[in-house]
Structure formats: C-alpha cells, structure tokens
Fold this sequence. Notes:
Elements: E1 22-24, E2 31-33, H1 34-40, H2 46-51, H3 61-66, H4 102-132, H5 135-138, E3 144-145, E4 148-149, H6 150-157, H7 161-172, H8 181-185, H9 187-193, H10 197-210, H11 212-217, H12 219-229, H13 236-252, H14 254-296
Antiparallel strand pairs: 1-2, 3-4
Helix pairs in contact: 4-7, 6-14, 9-10, 12-13
Amino acid sequence: xxxxxxxxxxxxxxxxxxxxxxxxxxxxxxxxxxxxxxxxxxxxxxxxxxxxxxxxxxxxxxxxxxxxxxxxxxxxxxxxxxxxxxxxxxxxxxxxxxxxxxxxxxxxxxxxxxxxxxxxxxxxxxxxxxxxxxxxxxxxxxxxxxxxxxxxxxxxxxxxxxxxxxxxxxxxxxxxxxxxxxxxxxxxxxxxxxxxxxxxxxxxxxxxxxxxxxxxxxxxxxxxxxxxxxxxxxxxxxxxxxxxxxxxxxxxxxxxxxxxxxxxxxxxxxxxxxxxxxxxxxxxxxxxxxxxxxxxxxxxxxx
Length: 303
C-alpha cells in the first residue's frame, strides 16, 4: 500500500506512516488506520459512495520518491524537508566527508549492523507470522512485546527463536497455555536448562517433599536388606533391636504413609501437567524480565 503513505486518515486526521496497519475501503478505496476503521466500523466517505466516485491520493509518485533519503535510503513522509533518521536534506546527495572521526565511524558501523539485523528479523518474523497467521507482527521488526523490542527478546532466546517467538506473540495477545513436552516429564531440568534457577530450585524442593511418603514406605525393604548384610557380624545383635523398632514404627504408620504417597503422587502429576501447560509462559515472563534488566545496564565505552 505504498500509494497511501503520507496520506491523511479521514477519521483521525493523522498521516499514514509506513509502519501503520492500513485498511482500505473496498468500495471507494479510502485508506484508514486499522484502529480508526475498527472504531467507526464503516467508511465515512458517504459522498463518494453516493456519487460512485473513488478516493484519489494527494501525493504523486514523484513526490513519494523525492521523500526517500539519498543517504540512508529511509522512506520519509512526502513533503518532508529532511530525513527523520540521518537529518540529510531530501532531494540532495550527501557531501563527501573529508575526515571521519572515530566516533562517527563507530556510529556508522552500528547503523549498518542495525540495518542488517532489522532485515534478518523481518525475514524471521515473516516466517513466524506464517505459522501464527499474524501479518501485523510479521511485517514490522520494530514491534514490541510489553515494553521490550521483539528483536531483543529473540536475541535473548537464541537458536530456538522460531519455536518461541510465535508462542510469545500469543502470550502477548493474552493467552497463556501451550504444550511443553520437556516440562511434562522433566520440568525441573527444563527450568534449570533455561536458567530459571529460582523456580527450578523451588520445584525441586516441592517434588522432594512429595516423594517423602514413598521413600518411607520403601524403608522396610531397605531395613531388611541391611539386616541381611549384617548377619554374622559383631554389630548384628546391637543393630537388630534398632531395626525392629524401625519396622514396628513403619508398620504402625503403613496405612497413613500409603494414603499420603497416593495423594502426593497425584499432586506430582498435577504439578507436572501445570508446568507442561504453563512452562512456555513462565519462560516468556522470565525472558521479558531478563531483557529489560539487560537493557537497563549501562554500556561501557569501547576501549
């Protein structure tokens, strides 16, 4: 929808930018911001509909091409006097620099890296958008999840970007449940692998507590095995009394321990199911916090 860039939205009166999600009336061709179209629910150019006329652009193709910066290639709004990125006057070519300082060279390298990175994430997000059928996110690498840039979150995730980014977009839209198979069988290992140490240690503690009744039920067999190992030894007589006391206590609590082990087994299964359904969401929240913390850290100057 290149011909609509720089035109005014007849609903809000603001210009249509290249990053805007634009909706076009199917009858007269009038462009709107998607939010404006959804707000009104219909085209407000009733005079065009009644007369059978069509919307016509204000800016010509030549004026749109003149708004493209000759220095950095940024597409500005038609009628702009200078580039909103590098500040070069439009319609002119930048003068050849006689001498470039070290700071300017570093800034140029950063700009080139950002352009390459933007192109890479545009392709990445287009693939993710095909999976999730979300073109609005796939076509704009400057989109944010919460207060963080989507590209920064993808950088933090690393090589599993194509798996996590579509799910993160769903979480950003208000959903929380996806299936995570590693969390179904080994939730504590998955959390530790993703460096969510706090919740991983908490889960290990909870699972350890839930396994105590089953461990106590198995102590009877362990006591009998130890008795068999000590048969004929000098310590057998002194330890036999202790073993008998332990066995008596275990037998008196056998019913309670059995019921407790059954309940704890069901609780463990429920806990694993919860982490299987919410494991990706936990990682989504963890990734946003870590990216925000990294963004707040001061950048030390290059030596």
